[in-house]
Amino acid sequence: MAAVPDSTKDAEVPVTAGKEAQEESGQEEFTNPLQGSWSDMLAWSCQQIKDLLGLAVVTGSLLIYGVLQERIMTIGFGPHSELFGHSIFLVLCNRLVTCMAACAYVMLTEPNMNAVAPMSSYAAISCTNVIATSCQYEALKYVSFAIQTLAKSAKALPVMIWGTVYMNKQYKPMDYILALTITMGCTVFVLNGPVASRTVSDTSNPGYLLIGAALMIVYLAVDGLTSTWQDGLFHAHKMSVCHQVMYTTAFSTSISFMGTVGTNQLIPSILFLVRNPDALW
Q1: Distance of CA 199 to the CA centre of its chain
Q2: Cα–Cα distance measured from residue 20 to residue 177, given in angstroms and rounded to the nearest whole number
Q3: 37-76 as b/e, with b when 16 or more CB fall inside 10 Å?
Q4: Alpha carbon 43 to its chain's center
Q5: Tens digits of per-residue pLDDT, 45-91?
Q6: What pLDDT sits at residue 54?
Q7: Is the per-residue pLDDT at 128 higher than 90?
Q8: pLDDT tens for residues 186-235?
């Protein structure tokens, strides 16, 4: 008598193969949280609230950070409205405070403060970060804060290019089309509106626009590289955000300190603060 094939086993093969293929591709099966238990729905709701709060905090912090940038670089201090023009010193102060805050957080929350990645990786990220931030501050002397903020929207294109070069990421043609569309839209807006910083005395001279545009191009290119290297460091080594921030800002503090000394900005910046103590707050 011929054996009857087991239809159940035959039916299981494609399901198992599909799961194995799904695991190999790194994709997870989508499950609708609204169709699960009450505990699943509660966990999903809490995660959504957490994400929204995180988004609000990040957006609010960046808004305050941007307003303070423009205040320091374009509005004078003291009775004579003296302008502060030392960009690298601002980077030094920024990274020093960030490093101290990250160190305190890591000491309180993580048992291991040892570096989990090569020091050269932290240093490379710090170097590009200092260059990008310095260009960002310096550009405020030539173009308005609104234009600079709008130009940052074009950051997607350099990030995609660096991601392809360094991490072999593959993007869909539509992703490039959208990035190019955003970049072109920003360019059109820049070319058809007031772009000069309030510190520019002669707006009839197009030189300020060329310098500001060059600084923003360098900023976008180098900042895109920074983001790519940061992403690669997270993928290559298991570390928390604050752990990476602690080490990268420690290197950034050292690099920016050498930059302020090398460009003769340290002593003039300190003297400026002595003359205008209100700039500290």
Answers
A1: 27
A2: 33
A3: eeeeeeeeeeeeeeeeeeeeeeeeeeeeebeebbebbbee
A4: 29
A5: 888 888 889 889 888 887 888 788 878 888 888 888 888 888 899 99
A6: 86
A7: yes
A8: 777 766 666 777 777 766 677 777 888 899 889 989 998 998 898 888 88
Q: What is the mean pLDDT of residues 249-258?
A: 94
- The confidence score (pLDDT) of residue 251 equals 94
Instruction: Name, in order, each residue with C-beta under 8 angstroms of 155's C-beta and a sequence gap of 6 or more.
Output: 220, 223, 224, 227
The answer to whether the Cα torsion of 64, 65, 68, 70 is positive or negative is negative
Geometric angle at alpha carbon 69, from 68 and 70, rounded to 5°: 90
- Report the pLDDT value the prediction gives residue 21, as an integer from 0 to 100: 45
Mean pLDDT across 163-180:
85
What is the three-state SS of the chain? CCCCCCHHHHHHHHHHHHHHHHHHHCCCCCCCHHHCCHHHHHHHHHHHHHHHHHHHHHHHHHHHHHHHHHHHHHCCECCCCECCCCHHHHHHHHHHHHHHHHHHHHHHHCCCCCCCCCHHHHHHHHHHHHHHHHHHHHHCCCECHHHHHHHHHHHHHHHHHHHHHHHCCCCCHHHHHHHHHHHHHHHHHHHCCCCECCCCCCCCCCHHHHHHHHHHHHHHHHHHHHHHHHHHHHHHCCCCHHHHHHHHHHHHHHHHHHHHHHCCCHHHHHHHHHHCHHHHC
Nearest residue to 137 via CA among 97, 86, 93:
86
Name the token pair of 168. Answer: 């072999």
